[in-house]
Protein 1
Amino acid sequence: MSDQNQDYLLVAAIDFGTAYSGWAFSTRTDHSKDPLKVCANTWGAGNLMSLKTSTCVLFDQNKKFHSFGFEAEDAYSDLALDNKHGDYFFFRRFKMKLFDKLHLRRKFMLEDEMGRRMSAMDVFSDCIKYLKNHLTQKCLQQLPDTCDSDIRWVLTVPAIWNDTSKQFMREAAAKAGISDENLLIALEPEAASLCCRHLPMNAIGGGSCNFVPFAPGSKYLVFDAGGGTVDITVHEVQPSGSLKELYKANGGNWGGTYIDIAFRNLLADIVGNDVMDDFQATQMMDYIDLFREFEVKKRNFKNEMTEKITFKVPIALNEGFKQKKGMDIKDHIKTKPKYEKSINWIGDKLRMEAHVAKGLFADACESVAKHLKTLFTEGQVKDVPTILMVGGFSESPMLQDVIKRTMPDKKIIIPADPALAVLKGAVIFGHDPSVIQERRCRYTYGVRSSHRFNERIHPESKKFVDDDGDILCSDIFDRHVQKWAAC
């Protein structure tokens, strides 16, 4: 923090999510009174109102930024209705493209929904720039004399991302106009942890009335289930109130969008992938509306439900299928034995048995359960008594049930509005980054160096004589930081 701007007036955080993104800020004065008091924006799409907007971005024919979020979805849908979308670039849920990209290049190209390519750096930086400018405009309404140097920015990233992807986001932020000396990178589960430690007891679900969740010495696992990834870290509260990481960040790509993919695959299995691709390409508004409705429906899926689930499906999908296959979908389903008794297609309604709907969660939930079982065999994690569930996917009763059944001996805590925990926590982190006292290193770091040549251990091929006449061995790895290893 020695190079960071210490004379800031407010902290502004951008939570750049796989499915949804948002921003929030608070002044130093407000933070000192109530760390959870933050200003955020309310975004709207039809009847849907949210403190986050869809992570979608639209560029015009010249690859110039057009719109972001729900506005981008609606604008692209309108263009598609008029058949004017062909030369536009529409990206959605593209953040996961950076996941585990160890050899990521600055010239890395992203493919949009229709396979058109643009520079990933341009796409990410323009999105960050939009959120930055949107926040700044709102901020100036409340604090009209604020200038760039008064703001400390925080950008969230998954803890399981490698250093290359994190550096990519830092450079994208710089290109968006956020100077490096005013920028902090917050790890998403850490930010969520910081938010939850400030919550009043009546905002915690699953805890007894005499349970103090974050007292000094307490240990807990942060389970951050977002749109793209499940991000896990383990913390211990130090006597000073700061946090020590007990186990390296881990997780996988089992977030909420995994369920959306399963739903699309189900539809594609019924009507054919060619029909789904054509539906997406030519009826984008209907395609977006279909998945918006599914997003609302899936949040209420429960393991104990037995009744059929009904989805409204755009007529255009059936019309496209009939044009290609010569029959209605409802008649086609009757010819598929695995669906004829479990799925009905009536007009613009898709009705499926509860077990089919719940099955959409199977792969993601099984991956989570398997990972947690393995994780809790590790020495540093085995005795951790509490799991803190945050992130938008943690709102799912299906996922909650899986965690409870997988870890019956653990206390499960789910805060109110778990989807906002990362965003609020990022603001809190910006006000006091030193609260994260210790992290576990995922890699060994060092530099290439030359040492005095030792014929017993050094290969002759690396032997050379320097300008002073000393005989040295080149290309020796000089270790600066040792990778953390579990005991």
Note: The radius of gyration is 25 Å.
Protein 2
Amino acid sequence: MALLHFSSALSILCCLLTAGGSALLEKNMPVLDEFSASDWSNCGVNDPFVVNSLSISSPIRIPGPLTIGLSGTLKVPVHAPLKLEVEIKKKVWGVWFKLPCEDNYGSCTYNDVCEMLEKMFPEETCPSTLQSHNVPCHCPVAPAEINIPTITLDIPKVQLPAFLANGEYWLQIKASSGAEQIACFSTTIAVKAT
């Protein structure tokens, strides 16, 4: 996730939670209560990008502040196109369901994140939050230790039915460049709309 601009990534995450779905999935995923922190792991083997630590406030409140911190290591340069595969599952009545991809939100594949970043941040502009921590928001991305200390962002109010917004979510993100997998990361979070 460090390969994306954090503000846009978190906005995308919020929007990802708006889709509904009905594909039956595994039942043996981590269980979170309203007060627990997120559970996360690297899911790739020998990937060039590895998350070393991650903290996300839980539950994520919509609207409300979101506190996040991340450190990771990128061992190789990453060039365009950078493909991102996002899979999201929501727990409903004890069963995990995959959220479909609708209007680029949900369990979607983004074939060129570098191009998306160029459109979001034209002419090599980067938000000050990322600049202050030397986190790039354009490709190519050079090998580096990425360390984003705990920051707090505001999640805006989103009109969602309570049954879609509230609950447990499992999120997996896979990044690849050409045939090489760059990263695989998964986390479980609790979400509460107020």
Note: The chain has a mean pLDDT of 76.
Protein 3
Amino acid sequence: MQDHLNSPRDRMSKVFSTSLRCRLPVLLFFFQGALLVLFALFVTYDEHTDAASQPPDADPSANQLYAIFSLFQDIQLMLLVGLGLLLAFMKGYGISAVAYNFLMANFATQWALIVQGFVYHYHQGKIHLGLYNILTAEFAAVTVLISAGAILGHTSSLQLLLMALCEVPLYVACEWLTVSHFRVVDIGGTITLHIFACYFGLGVSLALYRPGLQEGHPKAVPSYLSDFLSLVGTIILWVFWPSFIAALIRQGDAQHRAVLHTWITLSASALTSFATSSLLDKKGKLTLGHLQNATLAGGVAIGAVADMAITPTGAFAMGILSALACILGFQYMTPFLASKIRLQDHCGIHNLHGLPGIIGAMGGIAAILLIPDENYGLQLYQVFPPRAPPLDNTTMAEAASTGQELGRTASRQALYQVAGLGSSFIISLAGGFLTGLVLRLPFLGQPPDDLCFDDSLYFKIPRLTEALHAGPSHEDLQMPLKDHDYQLQDSTVQMSANL
């Protein structure tokens, strides 16, 4: 027994405990200090926020704020509320899911402001900062939040932040390659965001594989309340998803078309999800996991073709196909991947972002091939401004189209679409795996198997009665959530008769 207690593994666990009292504050304070210095040295206002650069008779309504602020707020709500609640489906990990989502969103957005600033907005020795920069930085943060879904519950906050630190620069580099170099048409980020985020997260998950979680975990299951909150998060995402797609599209008919197509695909996905989920159950009952994910699958797929003239019928078909792929992925592909290649995907990001993303990418290639060669350049200029801002100081409206700039035919552009898809897949998967190897370092506070998916490991969790200030007469409300007691006493929560 003494030898066992003095084993190297036991001594290592004592040195590298799960307590983050020093490690997390040091990382966050160092990060904030470094960004403070970078902001002081390199960041200034852009032309929309600098009064000195505006002519005296400038029209205030022409400021960029009025064009994108409402979309910016919609995306804020999606990221911090919708996505946070969507991830809160595990009965003992809801607080961690929402809090870590909030933490990573801010961390990744700040980091992306600097990384994207040097790549896209740096001239005359300064990063020129405006609301547009924050908007595109939040798109970069979305990739981190999606990727975290594959490893949420068995990683520490320190690991998640270091993943964000590695992922954001790789995302920006991959986006530059696919959008600015290959000139891939992907206005809603299906290829550059959803596919990248999905396979980066799966790459990290492969590197962090834990045999002890192969058969699941008793705490990695939903409860009545957690499933309800997750479904509310899904509905919030569903409502505001058109803003996410249309935010970076030039105002006019293209943006109008993108909103229209996004709503059609989301609505088709919703009805298809209800029908398919009921069909797959022997008693016709609905599976909440299907509804929480597949109803959003159309929004993932439509990003690559949202502003194209694909007709409402095309958008409708894409919504149906993406929802079917998502549900069938949960039903059949997830168990297969878990057993055959040891892929642990706790939030099912492959089914919501990977499979619908591939369908959207293929739909984009098909749509481009249907555009006549002689009209290709003109249509691209009218419909497909680059998703990433130009490298010089010109506006997106002044940027030349892919067809006009490179003289590409539709068939040639389709090949570039394939190249962009392949690049995003390979770079994200390889980058995620290498990042996962870094995250295996023992001092990063990764929880042991028995403490995974447990809020109380990193948070002070009060009893429900304390939170509600319930008196002694409300004994039926006492549901102990402190420490590691998450056993569900009954299939339904018995409420007091005197409430």
Note: The chain has a mean pLDDT of 83.
